[in-house]
Amino acid sequence: MGRVSLTLAHNEDRAKERHERTSTMQVRMLDLMEEREKEASEYRLMRESRENEAQLAHRRWLMSLVNPQTIWIILSILLALVGIKVFDVSELIEATSGDSTP
Description:
Strand content: under 5%
Helix content: over 70%
Radius of gyration: 40 Å
Order of helices and strands: HHH
Number of strands: 0
Number of domains: 2
Oligomer: single chain
Shape: rod-shaped
């Protein structure tokens, strides 16, 4: 009987140790998962910030293309394709405005 009680006590001690190791491992796993989730969240925020900056830079670049000089160049090219010179257009504008003196 003494041997059985000694074996049971030993098994109980081993079960307690196993339970403690398992619970410690679970706590470590939870800590690792929380840390990885935090890192993923930080990375996601950083990536979204970079994407927003890239979109803003692209929008600024597009807006920098639209200026009076660029519009005149594009208009001149289109009118040249049609066969009208910009000089003729400016004369036409002066003639139709009524401010020109003969």
